Amino acid sequence: MKVHTYNDGDLAAEHDLATRLPYFERIYICLKGCKKGFLAGCRPIISLDACHLKTKIGGQLMCVVGRDPNDEYFPFAYAVVEVETKDSWTWFLNLLFADIGDGKRWGLVNAFVDNWPQYEHRICCRHLYNNLRKNHPGVLIRDLFWKAAKATYEQAWERAMNELKEVDEDAFKWLQSHSTTIWARSMFKSDGQSDTILNNMCESFNSRILKFRSKPIITMLECIRLYLMTRFQANKEMIMKVESKLCPKIRKRLYKEKLACRKWLACWAGRTKFEVKNGLESFTVDLEEKSCSCRKWDITGISCCHAISCIFFNREDSEKYVNACYKRTAYIDCYDPIIEQWPKICGDLVDSHLCNPLSRGDLLASLRRRGH
């Protein structure tokens, strides 16, 4: 049996037609307050991960985490499944995308490739590097990998990759065998307004709920709901004390770019276009398009040091050019909804004779019968 639950009272169940046994298999939860907050204030980028439940029955907790306007994690949907496979990820993502409108076995990657090729997919570079260093260890290779991954424009990425090729050609070939669109910042699209190359948002959330994962499923889910409810209120109280138009972390990030802009000389080319120079390096900035040839501004939505040198040339406020998704007003919209307590459900039970979840041995046998 697969159970889908929502904070506004809807409940649905699916029976396994192969066995016809009403045993618990999966449960998906998307709280109404979290859904409204994500759609109102978060950027169109999500992180997905699964972690093991620390009970006798086992199972895994899948979660989807967005990024709020202060660049912190925003969990808004999660599910308990029997095991992490392409089938379970596809089931989870189908429900997720129906809501928002639109690993080791790499089940998640396969699910995306087969069902949602229109969405950009990124992998965690920390996991990618851990696989690289198994056969190609060394500090120099590590530094060159991160240099290539963090490069925001193609020329910088090519320089780092050429350096890696000179040091270890096999490491270069191994990295080239992985599509650059999923790990190199220089190839990222600008739609998501994020340059993240790590899945640290999901890891932070999983770490925060670690103590809940050893509890029975219903108790664990209620603990997560209560945690999210109190977190919403705490964040609402925090932002009311902020006087800046920007969220606190974004303001600090912008300040670092302001300090770095002192190295760059802005040369006005006409209208809203500039050429920014520092020795032999130069970049093109268009203030009207909010774009720089280094692509950092394009990818993140936060003015880069090259753009800020041009903004200061015009004697303007740099905060004006930061994307609206980082503003205080967006943060208020994000955490304004309230996560309610579970209401009393009227009507018949989904199934009053629900069996316990399958054991690991029975589960593996069931998966083999399905062809997974």
From TrEMBL:
Domain SWIM-type: 283-315
Domain of life where this protein originates: Eukaryota
Pfam families: MULE, SWIM
Keywords: Metal-binding, Zinc, Zinc-finger
GO MF assignments: zinc ion binding
SMART domains given in the database record: ZnF_PMZ (SM00575)
UniProt cross-references to PROSITE patterns, sorted A to Z: ZF_SWIM
InterPro entries the record matches: MULE_transposase_dom, Znf_PMZ, Znf_SWIM
Name of protein: SWIM-type domain-containing protein
